[in-house]
Amino acid sequence: MSDDVLRIRTPIGIKYQYSAGPRVSSHLHGLMDGRFVGKRCPTCHLVYMPPRNGTCAKCGCLLGEDVEVGQRGTITTFCIVNVPFLGQTIKIPYVAATILLDGADMGMSHLIQEVEAADVRMGMRVEPVWRPRDEWQPSMENVLYFRPTGEPDAAFESYAGQL
Amino acid sequence: MRDVAIIASAQAINAATTTATPVEMLIPVVNQVLENAGIARADIGFWCHGSCDYMTGQPFSFVSAVDALGAWPPIIESHVEADGAFALYEAWIKIQTGEVDTALVFGNGRSSSGDINRILTLQLDPYVVGPLWPDDRSIAALQARACLESGVVTERAMAEVAMRNHHNAISNPYALRRGDHTIDELMAAARVADPLRELDCPAHADGVTAVIIAAGDRARSLAKRPAWIRGIDHRIESQNLGNRSMTTLPSAAAAAHKAGVGSDKIDVAELHAPYTHQELLLTSALGLGESTSINPSGGALCANPMMSAGLARFAEAAARIMNGSADRTLGHASSGPWMQQNLVCVLEGE
Amino acid sequence: MSGGTTEYTIVEDGSFTAPLELSYPYKRTVGPVLSRFLTGLRDHRIEGTVGSDGRVHVPPAEFDPVTGAALTEWAPVASTGTIVTWSWQPSPVEGNTLQHPFAWALIALDGADTNLLHAIDAGSPEVLSTGMRVQARWAAEPSGSISDIECFELAERATGAAS
Predict the structure, then answer these.
(1) Element (H, E) at A111
(2) Chain C nearest C-alpha distance from A22 (Å)
(3) Is residue A9 in some structural domain?
(4) Which residues span the domain enclosing A28?
(5) Position A134 in a domain
(6) Interface contact B241-C130, CB threshold 8 A
(7) What percent of chain B has pLDDT over 90?
(8) Which one in B51, B86, C8, C124 has a CA-CA gap of 20 to 30 Å to A99?
(9) Is A21 in CB contact (< 8 Å) with chain B?
C-alpha cells in the first residue's frame, strides 16, 4: 500500500455555554432540594415531569405553573437490558423503565434496582432511592434508581393512556 | 405561477445573550405572527424552519423546534440548515405546487451560545482552509482590504455605511446596536481585525423572525395590502476563496437579474450584508441607486441574529409595503463567507 | 461526538447554565486530487491542477470551474509568492498554526493563478503590505495536511532557505 495521504484528521471543537432555560431550571432547583417539580401546560393541563424544554409540544405553548409530583410512581413499561456496551456501569441484566410519577401525566425514564429483572411488572409501584444529600447536583442522577415499594400493583386502566 | 405574498411578520427583540431555550424563544414569536395575521395554527398549510445546530451546540436541535408549532394533529413541515429566508424560498415553492395556500416560515438562532466567529469557521472548506481555523472576521477583513486597495470602496464610505445603519437602528425596536456616530469618530476607532473596525462588523445577536406567506385571494383576505413576491432567486458562488472575486458579487448580480430588480425603481432595500464593505459591494451588485433607501431597519450590522437576520430583512421589506410607505421593495439574505450565497426577493404592493 | 458538563452557574432569572464542549474527531478521506496535493506538502512540494483555460489552481481544484470536467493535469508551483490581501489576527485561537499575533493572507504562489489562504508570521501589521514577497515555512513534523506549511514569512526577513 502506498504511503500517500489518503485521509486527514480534522477534529472540530466548540465551547458553548449551555442554558437550561427558566422553566427546566425550576425542575433542576427541585432536584437540588430532593423534590420532583414538573410543570403544567396552561392549554391542555397535562403535567410534564420533567418539563422537557419548557414547552408543551402538543399545544405549542410555554409550560406554566410548577407542580410537585411523586415521589412514588408506577412502571408503565420497561425493558430488560442484557447487552453489554462501552461505558456500562450497571451489572446486567438490569431494568430500564418508564415511570409515571403520581400526579404527572408523562412518564420518565429511570433504572429499577433491588428486584430481580424477571420480577419487574407493568403496574409495579416504585419509589426513588436518593444519593446522599451532600452529593446532590441539578441532575436526575441525584436519584440512584427506583425500587419496588411493595404496594399492590396499579390497575392497568390507571396508566393505559400512557402506552 | 401562483401569486404569493408576505401577509404578516413578527420578530423577537434581538439580545446579546439569552437564557431561554431555543424553543422557548420561538413560541412567543410564532404566536405573535399568527395573531398579526389573524389566523389560527390549524389554518397554516405548511411550516418551514431555518436554523443551524452548530449555533446552539445541540445536534438535531431543529427537531425540538417543532415543539413550538403544536404539531398535533400532525402538520406538514420542513427544515433548512440555513437562514429562515431560505426556508421562505422553500415555502414559496411549496405554495407553487398547489398543495397548500399558506405557510408559516421562521428562523432562529442563539449566536451567544458559543464563539460565533469560530462557529462560522465550520462553514469553510474543511480540507485545506478549515483546519487552519480562520475566524469569520479575519475572512471578511481579507475581502475588505482587497476592496479598499482596489478602490472599490473607501474607509470613509464604510464609515458612512456604519453611521447610517446605526442611526436607522435608533427607530428599530428590535435592533441590538444603535446610536449616532460621526464619520470622524468611526474612522478613528481601533481596528479589531485590520482593516475592520468594531462597527464595520455585525452585531451578532440571539433572535427569531417569523413570516406568514399566502397565495392569491387567501393573501388578500388576510392582509389589507399584501407584499406580493414578484421575483425571487437564489445564486451561489464557489466555496474556493482563492478563486473568487473579492471585489464583486456575481451571484448577487445574477439573482437580482433573475428576480427582476432592475425592471422598476426599488423604494426600500433591506440587505443582509454583515460587514460595511459588503453592503457597498452588494448595493452595487444589485444595481441600486440613490433613489433607494438602504436598510431603514439598520440591517444586519445592527442586529445579526444567525439564521434569522435574512428573514428579518424580508420581514422589514414587506412591512414597508404593508404599511403603505413603499410600493416596491427588495429583501435580501446571504450566507457563507464573503456572501457566498445570495437570495433576492422583489416585493410589490397592489 | 463527545460532550460533558463540569460546573454550573445560576443566572438572574434562575436558569442554570453550564459550559459544554462539543467536539467531533472527524477523519476525512481526501480523494485522489487532494491526496496528491497533501502528499506533496508532506514532502515540501506544492503542486496545483491545470484548468481547461490553462489556469493553475492551488489548492488544486478537483473539477474545472468552467467546464466541470475532472482535472488530471498537474503543474508544480513555487513555495514563494506574493501577498494579494491580508488581515491581522491579534488574538490567535485554538487550531491556528501560530499562537502569537499574525496575519491571515491570500497568497498567489509563483506559478499559480489562484490564491492560497494561510498565515503569515510577520510580527506586526505595520511591516505588512499587499504585494510583499513571502515564502513558506515548513512545519517541523509533517502530517500530510495544509498545516505542513506552518505559515509564510516575509521573504526578505526569512531565515531559512526556501525549498
Answers:
(1) strand A108-112
(2) 5
(3) no
(4) 18-69
(5) yes
(6) no
(7) 96
(8) C8
(9) yes
- Name, in order, each residue with C-beta under 8 angstroms of B276's C-beta and a sequence gap of 6 or more: B158, B159, B161, B162, B165, B199, B200, B301
Peptide bond preceding B195 in cis form (omega within 30 of 0): yes
Question: Are the CB atoms for B127 and B118 separated by under 8 Å?
Answer: no
Q: Which three cell numbers stand for residue B267?
A: 423604494
Distance from CA of C147 to the nearest CA of B (A): 7
ipTM beyond cut 0.85: yes
| Grid cell of B88 as nine digits | 421562505
Contact B252, B118 (CB under 8 A): no
Pairwise CB contact (< 8 Å): B23 & A14: no
Q: Is A20 on the interface with B (CB under 8 A)?
A: yes
* Residues with Cβ within 8 Å of residue B42, at least 6 apart in sequence: none
Which strand (E) or helix (H) includes residue C150?
strand C149-154
Specify the pLDDT at position B292. Answer: 98
Based on the fold, state whether residues A51 and A76 are members of the same structural domain.
Answer: no
Q: CB C87 to CB B193 under 8 A?
A: yes
The set of chains that have 3 or more CB pairs under 8 A with B is A, C
Identify the residue whose cell numbers are 489562504: C117
Indicate whether A104 and A65 sit together in one domain: no
Q: Are residues A59 and A87 in the same domain?
A: no
* Among candidate residues A69, A90, A109, the one where a domain is terminated: A69
Average pLDDT, stretch B17-26? 93
Query: Residue B114: is its pLDDT beyond 80?
Result: yes
